[in-house]
Amino acid sequence: LEWDEKHRIRKNCSRARILAEIDQSLRRLNTDYIDIYQVHWPDDNTSLIETMSTLSRLQKEGKIRSFGVCNYSVNRIEKIIKHYHLQSIQMPFNLLEQQNKHTLFPFCTKNNLSVLAYGTLCKGLLTGKFTHRSVFNKTDSRYSDPAFKGEQFDRNLKIVEILSSFAAQKKCSLAQLCIEWTISQPELTCALIGTRNRKQAEENFSALDNPLFSSDDFSLFERSIAHLIL
């Protein structure tokens, strides 16, 4: 992604842009290589061949050890893996957004692709901190996110209420419950979780260090909110 002079976001996966970005990243990180380099969004103005051949070249040069894509459709990924060694797929996935569980998950398992989930807490919605009174300004990504609008927001808040009651029974945070459920998915390689301070980080890690829920609990969560999931 890049920003033009009017601060508009543009997707740019051209060879020139990738080569410039990788060198800048290596300098900022003060390293000789990056373990996994991912294209965050597909660029309709650049061919898949140009993007993937550039990443393959960087891998051969030793600047990256592996590469993956994020927010790509199954159709695009199928075209890529016919000619290039794609390592990972990153996708949105959480208790509110489970669509990829039935589409991309099986595809990735079949093709031996690692699955990275982002949005584990759905931009904070699965922490329980938002209500119907919450207001988002235009500079907040939630402002235009369907998960925070209209009927979908209403449904999501009902789901949060149901899940919060389960968390209360275990005397843990809603975030911990949601993280535990997410990382319990067998197809998942890792879950990306944002934190703003030490307290949040420690709370999030507790889901790994001191798990509280069983597979039966997870099944109960899913049944309890199934009627509200799109």
Short description:
This protein is α/β, with parallel strands linked by helices and 230 residues long. The chain has 8 helices and 7 strands, in the order E-E-H-E-H-E-H-E-H-E-H-H-E-H-H.
Describe this structure in words.
The longest helix is centred in the last third of the chain and has 20 residues, at 150-169. α6 (174-183) crosses α7. It is built from 8 helices and 7 strands. It has helices spanning 15-29, 48-61, 74-81, 104-110, 150-169, 174-183, 198-209, 215-225, and strands spanning 2-3, 9-10, 34-39, 64-70, 88-92, 114-118, 190-191. It has 2 domains: 1-86, no CATH class; 120-230, no CATH class. The protein has 230 residues and is of the alpha/beta class. It has a 5-stranded parallel sheet with strand order 3-4-5-6-7, with helices on one face.
The helix content is 40-55%
Shape: globular
Average pLDDT, all residues: 93
Taken in chain order, the helices and strands follow as EEHEHEHEHEHHEHH
Strand content: 5-15%
Tell me the number of structural domains: 2
Largest sheet: 5 strands, parallel
Order of strands, widest sheet: 3-4-5-6-7
Indicate the low-confidence ranges by residue numbers.
Answer: none
Number of helices: 8
